[in-house]
Every structure is written in structure tokens, then in C-alpha cells.
User: Which sequence fits this backbone?
């Protein structure tokens, strides 16, 4: 049987988990695609490519040139552009696509959430009075917070962003998840965090910050997800493996 050539659009723990599962699958030749957003990406157990494709047309050309049989979009729920490009390129090429994602977090008793739609709304939600703010929403969206220099910011990112220099009172925490609950409790306690800013990323790897905020009575400004792509969507890795097996068996 011909090996299935699979493209995995990555950048999440789901994509990494899928790559690990496929590393020992002799019938699937999978390539993990990274945007190139982080300087030192974690090592991958399967082939890897790095960098944008050049929009939907570029991705369409890649699918054709690399004889890709199927695509798993395992990008982050906030990577809306890549997901839209994948949908459009796969439709135009007739290549099957599945989205592998995690459900959003939902509010539980004790959570003190303010839900917002944009980073500008998140800045507004911090209010005018000085607060100690834990920023965990990612490197690319830091610039908005330079409009509220009255706060002290604890900024957790993988790579140091240039925009951070414009936050006068800041402490950088350079690290990569997953994060344990006890570490989140210790960090938020030590830094006297009063308000946490996060995307509603969903998934287990970064949920302990939400739990820690609940336990410590800390407010959370949480960004709602963008509209999900209108594609077949799975949330369990076994279901994704079954989807792949089904396409492997197709003539
Ligand atoms: P985005 O806004 O949806 O995508 C911007 C551009 O980056 C895309 O148009 C594409 O360039 C390129 N790109 C994105 N993901 C790619 C991939 N897996 N392989 C190749 N090119 C990719 O995405 P983003 O929000 O900047 O996220 C970038 C990466 O970080 C994604 O892999 C995502 O899964 C990961 N990530 C994002 C977040 C977040 O909060 N947004 C959080 C954690 C991880 P071309 O148009 O040139 O193809």
C-alpha cells in the first residue's frame, strides 16, 4: 500500500502529540509544519518544515508539489489566518482536511472572569488603577499593553519580544509550558499577581493558571476565541488517528 503523505499544521501540544503517535507508523509519511514563530522550537520525532507557505495559493502549490494526500490542522485556536488558508487551499485542491483542536475552557464556580473580544478590550478591562498583571497571552500581542504603563506586568513568553521594552514596570519570565498547578500558585503568590490576562486557549497544558487564579481569587481577563474554521473538527487524538487510517485505506 502507498504511504499516506500527511501534512500536520503545528504549533500546539496536539500537533506534537500527533507527531509522536505517527513516528512509529510505517504507512504514514508525516511532515510537521511550523510557522517559525519561536527561535528554538522543540525537537520533532518526524520530518519538519518551518515558515509560512505564502498564503492559500502558496499552500495549494505546496500540497501539489509535495503530493500531500491529507492535512491535519492542529494549529492554535487563535491561529485563525492559517486555519482559513488551510480550509481554502484544501477545498481548492480536493485534499481532505481535519481540524484537531481542544474545546475552550468554560467558567467554573469561583472563577472571576471578564470575557473580552480583543486585546484592546483586555487593556481596558485592567482599569485605570495600578495593578500587578500577569500577561500570558503571547508575545505577538504585547504592544496593546504599552497604552497602560501604570501597571506592573509579569510577562510570560517563550522568546523575549521587542515590545516588552516599552512596558516600564515589567518582569520577564521566559519559559515554555506545560505548567504545573503548584508552580502557577507559587509564581502568582510570589509576584503578588492581582489580574491574569489569557486567551481562552483550552486544553490541559496551560489550564493550571486558570485553576491557580480561581484558588487565589485572582481576576482573569480572558479573550474569546475567533470563529472556528468550518471544517470537520475532532478533539480526541484517537479519532484523528482513525481519520488518518481511513484516508490511508482509501484508494
Ligand atoms: P496566524 O495568524 O493564523 O498565521 C499567520 C501566518 O503564519 C499564516 O498566514 C502562515 O503564513 C503562517 N503560519 C501559521 N501557522 C503555520 C504553520 N503551522 N505552518 C506554516 N506556516 C504557518 O497564526 P499565529 O497566530 O501567528 O500563530 C503562529 C503559530 O503559532 C501557529 O503555528 C500556531 O499554531 C502557533 N501558536 C499560536 C498561538 C496564538 O495565540 N495565536 C498560541 C500558541 C501557538 P503563510 O500565509 O505565509 O502561509
Assistant:
Amino acid at each position: 500500500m502507498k504511504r499516506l503523505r500527511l501534512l500536520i499544521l503545528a504549533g500546539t501540544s496536539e500537533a506534537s502529540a500527533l507527531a509522536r503517535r505517527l513516528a512509529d507508523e510505517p504507512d504514514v509519511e508525516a511532515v510537521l509544519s511550523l510557522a517559525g514563530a519561536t527561535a528554538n522550537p522543540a525537537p520533532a520525532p518526524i520530518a519538519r518544515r518551518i515558515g509560512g507557505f505564502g498564503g492559500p495559493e502558496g499552500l495549494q502549490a505546496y500540497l501539489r508539489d509535495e503530493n500531500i494526500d491529507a492535512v491535519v490542522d492542529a494549529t492554535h485556536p487563535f491561529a485563525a489566518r492559517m486555519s482559513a488558508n488551510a480550509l481554502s487551499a484544501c477545498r481548492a485542491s480536493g485534499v481532505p482536511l481535519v481540524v484537531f483542536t481542544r474545546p475552550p475552557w468554560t467558567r467554573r464556580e469561583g472563577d472571576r472572569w471578564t470575557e473580552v473580544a480583543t486585546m484592546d478590550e483586555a487593556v481596558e478591562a485592567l482599569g485605570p488603577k495600578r495593578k500587578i498583571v500577569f500577561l500570558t497571552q503571547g508575545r505577538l500581542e504585547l504592544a496593546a499593553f504599552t497604552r497602560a504603563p501604570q501597571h506592573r506586568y509579569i510577562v510570560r513568553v517563550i522568546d523575549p519580544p521587542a515590545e516588552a521594552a516599552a512596558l516600564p514596570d515589567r518582569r520577564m519570565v521566559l519559559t515554555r509550558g506545560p505548567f504545573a498547578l503548584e508552580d502557577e500558585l507559587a509564581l502568582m503568590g510570589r509576584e503578588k499577581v492581582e489580574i491574569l490576562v489569557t486567551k481562552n486557549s483550552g486544553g490541559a497544558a496551560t489550564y493550571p493558571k486558570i485553576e491557580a487564579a480561581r484558588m487565589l481569587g485572582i481576576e482573569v481577563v480572558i479573550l474569546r476565541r475567533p470563529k472556528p474554521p468550518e471544517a470537520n473538527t475532532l478533539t480526541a487524538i484517537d479519532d484523528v488517528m482513525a481519520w488518518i487510517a481511513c484516508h490511508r485505506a482509501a484508494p
